[in-house]
Design a protein that fits this description.
394 residues; alpha+beta; 2 domains; NTP_transf_5; Renal dipeptidase
Amino acid sequence: MRDPFALKTEDLSTEMHLLLAFLAAEKGEDVPVRCPELFRGIDWEAFIGLALHHRVYPNLYPKLKNLGGAAVPPGVISCLYTYYSRNTFQMLHLSGEMEFIGGELAQKNIRALFLKGPVIAKDLYGDISLRTSCDLDLLIPLADLAGAESLLTGLGYIKDDYIHTVLNDWKWRHHHTTFTHPQKGIKVELHWRLNPAPSGEPDFEELWSRRRNSGLTREPISYLGQEDLFLFLVSHGARHGWSRLRWLLDIKQLLLQQPDAGKLTALLRKYHYYHVGGQALTLAGRLLDAEIAEGLHDMERAPKSRAMAQEAIFYLEQMVNLHSIPVPDDVASYHKRHQFALLAPIQKLKFILSFLFPYPEDAETLPLPKNLHFLYFPLRPFLWAWRKTVGVQK
């Protein structure tokens, strides 16, 4: 029986509809035949802007290069080729550094799971040139964090000390630290969690037991198992509102590998990501024509999954960039509400209770000796009220 559900996308621009049509198509040549109306009056500069914003130009260029000027202006294809070529060199650069860092960590007996970057491009797309990456993300056991940070510093990386903490709240309120190499121009995110609280997730040992080894490099590089990778990609994409189509393309490509539907459903339920997974399936299926396995239909068709998918269309209408500070007030307000709505009941409870735990701002408002930091628990309501009166949040 045909499923009549459709996302409401009428407020998306013509350029966005054309971009989605190319990303959904197996062959670019099919798009002008199936959707000729999308090419009429198209703003090609805006189209290129969308491809760059959503970081899908590596996947897009191969589909456009053989179309010819009748459908797509040569200047558009030439522009996309320039970015495609730059990305290929960037991914080769990152691949070399990934292998180097992985080897250095192995020598120190520090286990690492690479979360994204070239290893995921190779796994999902079969070719590192078909996906963008601007940094390397790796997960290590919390107990090895100090050793890994020391190693990166010794390799010339500089730590971004943006994290302020009190009573060790960094262990759960944050999930990674950032390092940058000034000469190599490479950023490394060192994770001890997949996501910040109130997320639930498998611990490192569980993830390590299901790891896979990539054949991309000469030395083995470990990365997440198939179902664990799906959990990470959907939790990461949802946390950012699916504001970049590249993340949905990753889901489409992963689904082509046919992960075990039973294991995947059980994993998402265990860690309270069932409807987040369903949201991703709905978006990937309806926008990018991703193939949804029979065993995943219940998750995709759940009313909450589809409602959350519809809410995510806001980010595509607005071309939202959550990393561009300051985020506009209307976007920030919508994102805050949407993120809370995505949480399972137990996660909502943990999120609300987390406000009772002292924040670094409490220590800044009323500095106390470290051995008296426990007093911030009873003092927190008063310190919060004081900051509200002078216009400071948290």
